[in-house]
Amino acid sequence: MSVRYSDYDPFAWLYNQHWGNMFTPVAMAVANELVLPLLPKGAKILDLCCGTGQLAHLLSERGYRVTGIDGAEQMLQYARTNAPGVEFILDDARSFSTRSKYDAVICAFDSLNHVMSIEELGSVFKSVYAALTSGGIFLFDLNTESGYNYRWNGFYGVVEDDHVCIIRNSFNPQESLALFEATLFRLEGGEWGRTGFTLQQRCHPDQEVRSALKSAGLADIQVFDYTREGGLKPFSNEAHKAFYLCKKSK
Question: Which of 144, 148, 207, 216 has the fewest CB atoms within 10 Å distance of its CB?
């Protein structure tokens, strides 16, 4: 196991520009329905795989005491600007430990699809269990096979005055492996520079996820679908993303 997911450092600038603010409203909408009504005022929330901090910022504005953890140092540099006053920690989701206990852990934006084996996903769940208070809540989402087949199937691009990015998404159902291949051209100091990087995701079967959660001591597992158009509803095999809600066994 590597120390942390430093491969995502090259993605930080682009993610902060285009994805952080786009995904945050969905994560907040789901948290508003499933998690936040169950928490006391001023509850402690751990934003696991916090990325560039947009979700941590909104939670902090709501009066929650938020800590963010991410394995990409460059992501955290943006997070500290986006969410001033929030504590951010450089650590790996698969092996982190905290001195504090949290009333809730939220891990959004299909971050755990970047964990490439069910054994390592189980390690994440064990670390989450250790970080939660008794009865604490864990909310996370995963891309599904239906979602990969629908969305991860071709090229698209981002074109701005000072940067252009070409992205190819692909999914191999036989290997349950998804690739995000990006080539970024960015104008800095009057000159264009080029950066290329590839990120991987794993499609984790629902039954394996549930088994790993139970093995870690996480119980009362519920799974939901959410779309901007239809809101929150029970999970089905056609859902593009699965939102898992569970609790630490008392």
Answer: 207
| Helical residues (DSSP H) of the chain, grouped into ranges | 12-18, 20-34, 54-61, 73-82, 118-131, 145-151, 206-215
DSSP state of 224: E
Q: Name the amino acid, one letter, at 151.
A: R
Among left, alpha and beta (phi > 0; psi -120 to 50; other), residue 178 is beta
pLDDT tens per residue, range 117-164 = 999 999 999 999 999 999 999 999 999 999 999 999 999 999 999 999
CA atoms within 13 A on the CB side of 131: 26
Task: For 44-75, write each residue's pLDDT tens digit.
Answer: 999 999 999 999 999 999 999 999 999 999 99
Domain containing residue 165: CATH number: 2.20.25.110
Per the domain annotation, does 113 fall within a domain? yes
Report which residue type is found at 236. Answer: S
Q: Does residue 77 share a domain with residue 121?
A: yes
Which residue in this structure is represented by tokens 């859902």? 239
Going by C-alpha positions, the residue among 99, 59, 104, 101 that lies closest to residue 79 is 59
